[in-house]
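Bench log. Compound arrived from synthesis this morning; before running ITC I wanted a structural hypothesis for how uridine-5'-diphosphate-glucuronic acid sits in the protein. Inputs:
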Amino acid sequence: MIGCGYLGAVHAAAMASLGHNVVGVDKDPVKVDRLAGGEAPFFEPGLEELLERGAVSGSLEFTTDLGRVAGAKIHFVCVGTPQAASGLGADLAALDGAVDSLIPFLSPGNVVVGKSTAPVGTARRLAGALPAGVALVWNPEFLREGSAVADTLRPDRIVYGVADSGEPRGAAELDSVYGSILEAGVPRLAMSYESAELVKTAANSYLAVRVSFINAVSDLADASGADVLDVAAALRLDPRIGSRFLNPGLGFGGGCLPKDLRALAARADELEAPLTADLLRVADCVNEARIGRVAALAAAGLGGSLDGRRVALLGLAFKPLSDDVRNSPAVRLAAALAGAGARVVATDPVAVGAARPGLEFAVGVREAVAGAELLVLATEWPQYRELDPAEVAGWTAARVIVDARCVLDRAVWAAAGWTVLAPGRPSPDPRRLS
Ligand code: UGA
């Protein structure tokens, strides 16, 4: 496993749990030490158990020494492909570097498996650089943070991108790695490199567009007096639309959706598909605008200005069950509120260490809301959704909460004396906001 970030660490542990002997290689000695000690470098339910099991059985090893991959038959490449510092495209330096440095250790019959998310066209280029007799299979990953272990061991589908001439080389070897998963009936689709690459970026971009679509409907609801949650509830019952990824609010973030949407837009431009690029870019703009929309709601909740006001922000992670704050809408909202002059005191069950200038941290909700004039629910952790509004009212003089994720039961909160403001939902009587 080359690269032991989110994808590589989980994949390494999961493959070891299937009975394979796995060597995970990463350049970061601190990460390697933690993984080798059975400790997950990030919050991911179920991962530490697998790491410990692998360490005890001896089937899972982590190292900074790339030479340890010599003799391995299958080489998974799991390095990051972040957004480039300049422009919207993906930065492929780590991916190119990983494949280059792997080449001296490859022998005929070996299979290189690309799991990193890469722009369409990358796999064919990389396959051309491999030594004769070494096959490349492009095998995108669809794991979600927070359920990464289950997603890896029980995926919805397995996709193989293979060289399109003759026998799909490498597929049989990879089948033997995924043996028990395939035996459980998980569909396995073989296709060209280009199709496999596009499956991954199209999947993430579709999810992003879908979230932006419901947020665009949320803006229409605000403008017309409709309630976006009523609209979404009815949309979900249409089986052609389906129920998932229609939660409106603060928009999408994290290490994947934003960068993959942008990378696909950039690639669409390169491939001279300007309408595709426009569609994706507009979804990105709709998402970016969520922060300002919710910040305006917060200002409204304080009578028009955030300047000098104390705001408690519940949640910093980009989504619940994660400590990831990459591109987190909650963190970006905190920055917007602070930029408008608010004193923001934030809390999160696991992402509290995420230092950001101008942000104070509190260890729990009670500490965060003490002295606050306004509350903002920014990440819908179950423990925040289940807060007892009467109890919270005992911890703070604030009586307005901005429900940026549209998850609170407004009637229950209203009964305890709260005004709940949520994007896309009709405002309660404005006189109560003064
Ligand atoms: C995403 C994809 O869902 C995975 O399938 C993919 O494998 C992964 O990226 C990746 O490329 O590695 P993840 O980044 O863990 O997974 O997060 P999601 O669960 O997709 O959520 C993304 C963001 O969308 C979060 O900020 C979430 O709060 C937001 N979201 C999601 C909404 O605002 N509304 C929704 O209805 C759903």
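What the model suggests: Residues 117, 141-145, 204, 207, 211, 245-247, 249, 251-254, 256-257, 318-319 surround uridine-5'-diphosphate-glucuronic acid (CB under 6 Å). Confidence is low (pLDDT under 50) at residues 430-434.
ITC booked for Thursday regardless.
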